[in-house]
Amino acid sequence: MTLYPIEAGNFKLDGGAMFGVVPKSIWKKTNPSDSNNMIDMASRCLLIEDGKKLTLIDAGMGTKQTEKFFSYYYRWGDYDLVSSIKKAGFSCDDVTDVIYTHLHFDHCGGGSVWDKTRSFYKPLFKNAKYWSNKSHWGWAKTPNPREKASFLSENLFPIESSGALSFVSEHDTGFKHKQELNLEIMFVNGHTEKQMIPKIQYQNKTIVFAADLIPTSGHLPVPYVMGYDVKPLVSMSEKEAFLNSAVKNNYYLFLEHDAHNEIITLKNTEKGVRVDQSFSFNQLFN
């Protein structure tokens, strides 16, 4: 097995939305904002080469939306999904499986594109199965008012209509079930219904793709939950249990949205679980 970090494109989000009720005077220490109150965000995906399988976890927000849509997210930097996959030595046609941790547009938008005539959308990875779970897919297809702007039909319909959609089996808590894709998945419900958190064993280390359970290293304190979370008290409970497990089991957290920290380890402190060490992927594995 070989892992490749895939940078799908940086953007910015409102710092207040990202930290909920936490005052800016506190969160700006770890996530400084610009003059518009926007903080740096990454779309860091993970590519897993394992035998004949090439599995991508998440796909960023993509490029198919309108200029007006992207104007809200202040994209910056030179990264994009297709170029990053090519830099890793593969083409999009090589990808056999795509796992969506959840279906908010910044995690799945890159998985579908316009066709050449710009008359319809199609899966970007034409040879891949796209994996979600039945509960979350149904949640996204009939969105609540809180999440409606994050679940976009143009990200869901091309996958479903093409026949590429597959569902993993569901479990409520813990990394209990070994999935078909040679990784384990934990389901969490605070950010959105049945978000999937994958865990991979790699080079004698346990890598956890933290997705929106721990979006940045600045979100480690248990009360620091996003304004986007539909069940913030559930998020806090899930986060506390996960962080304690992460320290106990020496997890390496692969951070999807932290533009400046790729992978972190954790330690217990008098203030709670905090960052122990921060690594770039290449520092850790090359």
Q: Could you explain how this protein is built, in words?
A:
The two termini are 14 Å apart. The protein is 23% helix and 28% strand. The protein is globular and about 55 Å long. With 286 residues, it is an alpha+beta fold. The strands form four sheets. It has a seven-stranded mixed beta sheet with strand order 11-12-13-14-15-16-17. A six-stranded mixed beta sheet has the order 1-4-5-6-9-10. It has a two-stranded antiparallel sheet with strand order 2-3.
What is this structure, in a nutshell?
By secondary structure, the chain is α+β, with helices and mostly antiparallel strands. It is built from nine helices and 17 strands. Strands 11-12-13-14-15-16-17 form a seven-stranded mixed sheet. It has a six-stranded mixed sheet with strand order 1-4-5-6-9-10.
Name its key features.
286 residues; alpha+beta; 7-stranded mixed sheet; 6-stranded mixed sheet; 17 strands; globular
Q: What topology does this entry show?
A:
Blueprint: E1 2-7, E2 11-14, H1 15-19, H2 24-27, E3 38-41, E4 44-50, E5 53-57, H3 67-71, H4 81-87, E6 97-99, H5 105-108, E7 112-114, E8 121-123, E9 129-132, H6 134-141, H7 153-162, E10 165-167, E11 177-178, E12 184-188, E13 195-202, E14 205-209, H8 232-248, E15 251-254, E16 263-269, E17 272-279, H9 281-285
Parallel strand pairs: 5-6, 6-9, 9-10, 14-15
Antiparallel strand pairs: 1-4, 2-3, 4-5, 7-8, 11-12, 12-13, 13-14, 15-16, 16-17
